Input
Amino acid sequence: MTTTQTADLNRLATPPTFQSVSTARKIKNGVATALVYLAFLIAVVPLVWVLYTVIQRGFPVILDIDWWQKSLSGLLSRQQGGGVYHAIYGTLVQGLVCGLISVPIGLFVAVYLVEYGGRSKLAKATTFMVDILTGVPSIVAALFIYSLWITTFGFGRSGFAVSLALVLLMVPVIVRTTEEMLKIVPDELREASYALGVPKWKTIVKIVIPTALSGILTGVMLALARVMGETAPVLVLAAYAPFINYNLFDGPMASLPLLMTAERNNPTQAGFERIWGAAITLVLIITLFNLLATVISRWLAPKTK
Amino acid sequence: MNERIVAKRPADTDTGARRGVPAARPAPEAPIPPTTEAEKKAPHVRPGDRIFRGLATGSGVFIVVLIGAIGLFLLIQAIPSLALDKVNFLTSREWSTGDVNNMRYGILDLLLVTVVSSAFALLIAMPIALGIALFLTQYAPRRLARPFAYVIDLLAAVPSIIYGLWGLFVLGPVLTPIGQWLTSTLGFIPLFAEGNVSIEFGGTIFTAGIVLAVMILPIITAVTREVFDRTPPAHVEGAIALGATKWEVVRTTVLPFGKAGYVSASMLGLGRALGETIALTIILSATGTAFGWSLFDGGATFASKIALAAPEFNDPRSAGAYIAAGLVLFVLTFLVNAAARSIVAGHKEYE
Output
């Protein structure tokens, strides 16, 4: 018995036992592999093309120091020069205020889902609604804030209204990432804390959230980068101003996307420069926040064994 | 990244919460699992715990209420304007809200343009996204899979206004000869017939659909990739042991396992495409003629129509007309997203 097996193993498999892969199957495999590689290459084309367009058209504009230090105040639509610091200010402030409101809400919702909700009906409804909120188009969020803040409460268009609309877009992103991060905090940490008699809320604040902090902050940075590029809310809820307005709560306030839509109908060379200069500035700001996210996740990562 | 509806681990959450409650109570002399009687005997809850629990639960309730409020407020604003509408809101193709005493508006044209451009985008994006997801999970070298996935995610990081400008000023002119060729050779098919806007200018549903496809690609890819990653290794190994080629392994294990996730991901992409605003506002040329079922028509989607009119929202009655259109868009995306979610909810193996 044993001897025959050894003999069999030593002999090479020949056609009746082992059939080589048929040509048809080889061709199918080859075609599938080629198509899969091709799909990836197709996706890279628009990315490279878009970035190339933005850099090629916008880069010469932002080299001028005035671009970062001046606004477009007092300039005619055909006059070149000027800068966009008023729009950069608007984009950053609207984004940061939105972050200040969104982070606590998002954090608490995630804490509820992971630490308190369990399988209750409310938790299920909340998860479902967070998914729905993720899919709410930005224009609908803007219309909601318009009908709540401007029509119902009677406030005017302002940067703050934009921040409120951005909250609707940012909260679900923060909930999702925070939830994922809180889930991977090991239960042993919670149990050790409870065993020492630490109350549940203190365990969450001092043990669970700090452990997940790097992931949460990364998510916040990515969410901020996303909302800063949103155009629909600024279009509905803010009026454009070519000058600086520090007041978030009153008056027209520029932001980079709004500046781009305002200059879109400007056919002059100055309009072209403003549009693509603002485009590359926006891309740079978003890249900066993405880089911050990476840095935070590297530096603040919990020191595990 | 933010569409992680497939990665749920309710089992862990549950045990965590259940373990937490008894341990938090100061009952060191009772190592036995607490009975219902013991639960009743512990009325002392720390105020900190009560406040924190209230805040957390309140935030959960807030999200649920928020979605309801969005629908409710849009409805409240829309109803008075709908009452002033002189034509049927659902079946009319007119849109004139300038004169508030004679508002004639209907959503049929907006609905058709929105659905056709999104469907066209989906048609392009679905096979490519499937290919990318397979590439990233099955074909790409392990070491490079993560950076490659990052490249695809970068597509999602580009603001939609930049896609819009690129689509109109850069991609549009490149697509013009292709569009002209399609209309001249395949013009007898209504879908490729001469449209109601100039092809030279590029502001067609054709251009818009291709740009939309690029924009929804990363969403579909991200969710599909996650599902494909969960294919049980035993299935894959079994297929390899039976002598399957790489493609046969994919076809017999990864694809059947991930199919529902892929369909769900595509619906999420569709939801995003339906609501995309500024890119379409920039690309689509306005036209006075009704949509004629051609990809080379112009027109407006729900979102782009609202965005174009938004700066002039001054009279609540005419603004209400656009809010009514926004409400329809909200319901549409709600349904698509809920459907996407329910497809995945039926599949326990994705968790």
Chain A touches chain B through 107 residues (CB under 8 Å). The CA atoms of residues 214 and 299 of chain A lie 8 Å apart. Residues 23-62 of chain A form the longest helix (40 residues). The mean pLDDT of chain A is 90.
